[in-house]
Amino acid sequence: MDIFLQQIINGLVLGSIYALVALGYTMVYGIMGLINFAHGEVVMLGALVALSVVSVLAGSGLPGVVIALLGLAVAALVCMAVGFTIERIAYRPLRKAPRLAPLITAIGVSIVLQNLAMLVWGRNYHAFPPVLPASQHEILGATITSLQLAIIAIAALMMAALVLLIQRTRLGRAMRATAENPAIAQLMGVDIDRIISFTFVIGSALAAVAGLMVSANYSIAHYYMGFILGLKAFTAAVLGGIGNIAGAMIGGILLGLIESLGAGYIGDLTGGFLGSHYQDVFAFFVLICVLVLRPSGLVGEKLAERA
Amino acid sequence: MQFSRLSRMTVVLAAALAATACGQKEEPKPQTAAPAPAPAPAPAAKPEVTVRLGHVAPLTGPQSHLGKDNENGARMAIDELNAAALEIGGAKVKFELLAEDDQADPKQGTIVAQKLVDAKVNGVIGHLNSGTTIPASRLYADAGIPQISGSATNPKYTQQGFPTTFRVMANDVQQGKVLGEYAARQLAAKSVAIIDDRSAYGQGLADEFEKAVSAAGARVVTREFTTDKATDFAAILTKIKSKKPDLVFYGGMDAQGGPMVKQLKTLGLKATFLTGDGGCTPEFIKLGGPASEGQYCSLPGVPLDKMPGGADFAGKFTAKHGQIQLYAPYVYDAVMVAADAMKRANSTEPAAYLPAIGKTDYQGVTARIRFDDKGDLQDGSISLYQVREGKWVYVETLGGNPAEAATAAVSEAKEAVKEAAVATGEAARAVGAAAKEAASEGVKAAAGAVKEAAEATKAAVEKK
């Protein structure tokens, strides 16, 4: 039982991170119908910037939480700037182009960002300095660190704030209007260029938070980390129903749980025929199942609504 | 009007290009096929030959820090060879490195290998990973290009029957055996959990470890798997925790090993962590943080500072490229072995110098390099290291060179016999001095010494 609970905790931590990244995919898709494949690299940049700031401040004697927050602030600013720039350079000129064109520039931007990061931070792995308190708590025999508790709590808070922003504010209404029909929204006086930029900036800020969480929890950051993380988060977004905010959260958490429980139990269930290295396969197996059985995702809107 | 001028210009340009291209072709051909030989400024006294060595390692992706390290090792060897201005077959030799990136991906490995074969390189150093080295080795073998890897340790690489495959590092059968015995005996592990990254290297090493550790009397409680790109090991470590092993063995690279050991401690596992050469890097300690303290790894060969010229190599490398990650000295040796074979064969042609590689007896910075008939390093020794106060500290060298150890023991025994004989002679002289009792005592002592020497010889032979 304690092992099962431990796997649930592992899955929740992983899922919270996926959910935050998935939100970035789903928001952009919801508004523009574009899959921003460079989003994973924005997470990577967030992780590396935060880690660099934290490393510099690690010896300053400030409390760990303050250092992490400063790292997060810088990372969020950098990511927001990067997200804004990506949209201006790579997507805005192609807004009227066929759908495939921005998809290809997205992949191009992803490669450029990856190589830039390689030039700046090198090929080495970077370890996250142990500034955050790592006290462990026992719950019914399972272990959870305060950092992991914080990750789950912060992810939940950010998601709640995002839902409030979209459902309750003027800006959120403009975003929803743009998602529904950009042309009509523009006729109604919505500055859709500004709204789209804003969407990228919010998504990138969430990516920075996720980046800090990944590097702090797994104590590792690397210029290559965005690729797999981005793919998994994209899968989570599709699983929940891409373009749907609640769907991204549910998809992310669910995917984390599926991976964690799957990797923990598949060996026993299949009598050793399939092993735990199939952990990554679950994500893509789920992606295929969703695309075949329910292309609109678990809580996805009907496709007709978005035409 | 404008159009015609443009087209005329194009024609002129094309003609000029063609002329230069032809001019290049008409130049006297050097012995090896070089694509663009540097235009000779003055008629050189001796012809110059460009020897091109291919080098393949992952330069992008999760293992790129190790790949770049390998490349730096090869570059350093090439620079030193060029500085030494070698002459082979009556021509001045200039070495050139064609560095390629295989992304640690077997598919990419064969694509890059084909590229090097098409470029007609004189030899190949690499690849880094066993998984890329094995499929690529077939292409090199078909083209007759010698291949020397400094780091591919999977036994299959040299067991395919190709005459072109060599490695300057002990293979995983040797390493896995030493690690398994070390875990069960010195570390006194009764139950062991094994994880590998399902790469040809990780899986091969873990398989050999499993065999050896079971043979030495420990119980393997579970075998788990991950990939060489993973960062999250919570799920498999949670499962391992439920089996309560004394020791966790990981067959894989540092990029996974470091975070793994950290997550192992976070989950509250109390097992000792042991890994192979892939985790034996400063990077492992950096990534594992305090959790890496007290953990073990193994590395083929003996520590660099114990080798003749090793400390010198380390100093020069660090000054030029920074900290040695892992395989740079081995790759350096691989290049030197190729150059050494060319010198002995007095040719840079693959077909001519390939047989000379097999006869190598070269004192490298990592080991005395001699190959067996498969192209494996003879008598490769394995050294164990432990993290103490944030550094890999040398513990001991195992396996090693049984033949050499036995020879040393035999020669020691011989010395003892000789001493005993001298003592007998002295005793005989003492007889002449009419001290019978003393003499008989001396003879007895001498006989004892002879007996001891014989026993030592016997022990040495048994050890062998």
Characterization of this structure:
By secondary structure, chain A is mainly α. Chain A has one domain. In chain A, 73% of the residues lie in helices and 4% in strands. Chain A has a two-stranded antiparallel sheet. Chain A is globular and about 60 Å long. Residues 302-307 of chain A have low confidence and may be disordered. Chain B is of the alpha/beta class. Chain B has 3 domains: 48-170 and 305-366, Rossmann fold; 173-300, Response regulator (Rossmann fold, 3-Layer(aba) Sandwich); 403-463. Chain B has 14 helices and 15 strands. Chain B has helices at residues 2-26, 64-83, 106-118, 130-143, 172-184, 200-215, 234-243, 254-266, 282-288, 310-321, 328-345, 350-358, 402-432, 436-463; strands at residues 48-57, 87-88, 91-101, 123-126, 147-149, 165-167, 191-196, 219-225, 247-251, 272-275, 296-300, 361-363, 368-370, 382-388, 391-398. In chain B, the strands form 3 sheets. A 7-stranded mixed sheet of chain B has the order 8-7-9-10-11-14-15, with helices on both faces. A 6-stranded mixed sheet of chain B has the order 2-3-1-4-5-6, sandwiched between helices. In chain B, strands 12-13 form a two-stranded antiparallel ribbon. In chain B, a hairpin with a 4-residue loop joins strand 12 and strand 13. Chain B is globular. The model of chain B is unreliable at 1-38 and 402-409 (pLDDT under 50). Classes of the chains: A mainly alpha (307), B alpha/beta (464). The interface between A and B is large, with 39 and 41 residues.
* Count of discrete alpha- or pi-helical segments spanning 4 or more residues of chain A: 11
Protein structure class of chain A: mainly alpha
Assign the CATH class of the largest domain in chain B. Answer: Alpha Beta
Silhouette of chain B: globular
Largest sheet of chain B: 7 strands, mixed
CATH architect. name of the largest domain in chain B: 3-Layer(aba) Sandwich
Number of β-strand runs of chain A: 4
Q: In percent, how helical is the residue content of chain A?
A: over 70%
> What pattern of helices and strands is seen along the backbone of chain B?
HEHEEHEHEEHEHEHEHEHEHHHEEEEHH
Q: In percent, how much strand structure appears in the residues of chain B?
A: 15-25%
Mean pLDDT value of chain B: 83
Q: Report helical residue fraction of chain B.
A: 40-55%
Most extensive chain-chain interface: A-B, 39 and 41 residues
